[in-house]
Amino acid sequence: MSGFSSAAARGDSTASGDSTASRDQGLAVVLAALGSVTREFNARGNYPFKSRSLGRSQLDILFVLSEAADATAATAHAAATAHAGVTDDPGVGVGGLAAALGVTSGAITQLVDTLRAAGWVTSEVNPADRRARIIRLTDAAAHELEDFRRDYVSSLAPRFDCLTVGEITELGRLLRKVQSAAAEVSSRTVI
């Protein structure tokens, strides 16, 4: 844990009780732990579409689309149990992808064109606004991402064996809160 004091590594608060220093110390511990888990997984060299030579931004688009499809599936399941009939993946618009990744719509269009040509996404006219496009994962891309996600979870699961189900649920809630705040900031600062 180089770069962090042993007190920070243990999560000790400052003797002075300074809440800013204590918060910063705690944040340093969290970031170091997240970095450690991420480095461990990255060292395995396993990531989706490995043989396809996709760039980081293209992978990010595929992950955003996958997360959107997962959210839609959860909504569809809830609607089906409530007999509301929501079932179709609505996809994500170019503007939504741009906001999620903090880049321009033009950059997304170029990346999507490459992904579409490779058969990983579809791009269709938005029926609600014929000037806009809706981007969706192809079945092949969705399966590849699902296989990756399953491997990712199973390979890192032992790192979390020390946590109870409640603690994992709370950790997930807190990380989603951070993710949501980061997405809000990104949407206001699109370059």
From TrEMBL:
Region Disordered, as annotated, extends over 1-21
The record's annotation in InterPro entries points to: HTH_MarR-typ, MarR/SlyA-like, WH-like_DNA-bd_sf, WH_DNA-bd_sf
List the SMART domains: HTH_MARR
Which top-level group of life is the source organism from?
Bacteria
Name the SUPFAM superfamilies for this protein. Winged helix' DNA-binding domain
Q: Which Pfam families match?
A: MarR_2 (PF12802)
> Which stretches make up the HTH marR-type domain?
27-180
This protein is called MarR family transcriptional regulator
